[in-house]
Amino acid sequence: MDTDKTDRPKAPGPRTTDAALPSPDRASQALSPPDLDPATFPAEEDEEARLPDLPEDTTDAVADGPLAVGHAAIENAVRLAPTSPGVYRMLNAASDVLYVGKAKNVRKRLSSYARVNAPQPARILRMIAATVTVEIVSTSTETEALLLEANLIKQLRPRFNVQLRDDKSFPYILITGDHWAPQILKHRGAQTRPGRYFGPFASAGAVNRTITALQRAFLIRSCTDAFFESRTRPCLLYQIRRCAGPCTREIDFPGYTELVREATDFLSGRSHLVKQELAHEMEKASGELEFETAALYRDRLAALSAIQSQQGINPRTVEEADLFAIHHEGGYSCVEVFFFRTGQNWGNRAYFPRAEKSFTPEEVLASFLAQFYDDKPPPKLVLLSHEIEECELLADALSVKAGSRVEVSVPKRGEKKELIAHALTNAREALGRKLADTATQGRLLQGLVTTLGLSHPPKRIEVYDNSHIQGTNAVGAMIVAGPDGFIKNQYRKFNIKSQGLTPGDDYAMMREVLQRRFKRLLTPAEGDAAKTKTEAKADTKAEDDSFPQWPDLVIIDGGRGQLNAAREIFEGLGLSQLSLLAVAKGPDRDAGRETLFMPDREAIKLEPRDPVLYFIQRLRDEAHRFVIGSHRKLRKKDIREAGLQEIPGIGPSRKRALLHHFGTLKEIERASIADLGKVPGVSAESARKIFEFFHARPG
User: Fold this and answer.
1) Which of 443, 565, 623, 681 has the highest count of CB atoms within 10 angstroms of its CB?
2) Residue 299 and residue 281: Cα distance in Å, rounded?
3) d(Cα 216, Cα 244) in Å, to the nearest integer?
């Protein structure tokens, strides 16, 4: 979708009759403890969706409470319920929200639950038995009720609703509009900066690849405004023909404006026209014997063809649409979403919503759609694999959000039907892969139980590591794994803050990291204590339904000494029941020869080909990868702030020579020793020192 930065129309607000609504951000805040350093999240393309925990089987007997109590509570609510549209919430004795529903006539809908002898699915009977009170919010229209229902389900995560999992914002391409030489960049979040936004794309990787190809095709700058204004000569991107060089006026204003227009036309769906113009210019330059210019146009045409070939299937009859296909198997559902904009495929993503086994694919898809578009602009067309109830109501609600007509349909023939079939195949394969991965992960976790003598398979494993170079830029990190693999949105990094820390004191660094992590779990932050009752319940529910906050197994990188230090920390905090494992590297740091240490046990040596050892190695290596990445970011920031003067033996003259030769500090960092030695005034020894400064191995 191509959008200028404008204010989006908002749906009219509902009238609240019983309780104030919680803030939409509170559930997510529960996953970001305020006393931890900000999390360093991985690139979106690296993050895997995980299968949700299935709720209890719908065939179980009603055990939450007597049905009579629930029926009485609902009957009491019926007497006070309005006959107008609205949203109702069913709560249990602990005031946890069990279910959020909407209705055109709230009183009539609640009456259907209150009938004692009416046949109901086991899931509904359990919900009624657990209900002790009902809260109602009136709305002006049924469309408003649908939008509010979706918002509340995402916030409160009720036990008996379908829940959208792994929901996050999508990246866009932005061509800025607040500078005479517009910049092209990846953008995520609120669209507040002036410019043209193109998207959404399914992943950050898809955006990065497209931007790289667009730079080759249209030579638009990607540098920041500050970098742009400081240039005195073109940077490397100009030399490799990925930028037109507007910073040093290698291209004039009208010429650069024309490049931006061509890029905007291409992203807006007029790619055929743009390619025709470039082909015409190439032939014209060739006819005038300007072969270098003709070669430039040839390369730009090739870059545009590369963009379209990377996007795979590109429909002929679908200009702007989202496709949703659902596959259900083994009690789990996978919803595959494809994005088509300007007649091009901009990627796809698989979702695994949480729902009880008794829900039909149509019911899961209907609830998923309302939650999916709660915070996203809908396209002109939404194509579905299954017929859903209240399809027209959903279309009306999406039209309100978009400010224009949105069509929701299930294609029966033609190319659209073929696209849905393709999406269904992807959904089936994605769910099959995820189920297979989950089964393998379950066997590995059971292997940990046998090898380490645990009481049960761990649901949450936390692995800790730290990194530094001679004590500088010290950082600790925690990675998390569970039954579905690595849970990357739970990763955390810790900038070491202890004063007077002896450089390289790994014990002190580990002590600080573990104390900060587990003190946070033991003592809620002041901000948490100040939360209202409704907020606290929303946070707790989000944590309980998504992933446990307390680890079943803690793994640290080190030997018996690190194990004893960690054990001392846990005993001081009163956490002697936590399972603790230290993984010592083998001789010469050889993988497969590690020694495992646990409190009050002999050292454990596993066979090099043991699957459990491979699993533990993967956990340790992932922690090492994450902490090294965090350390390098801190170190690069210091280098950028300090400049080259921090390198021993590099004075102003050599610094100036290096910058003139390479253009930027980033290119100096990338250079080899041989390339550095070619700079005038830089000797072989100085080149070695410069290279080692940028490539020193962290501890």
Assistant:
1) 623
2) 12
3) 10
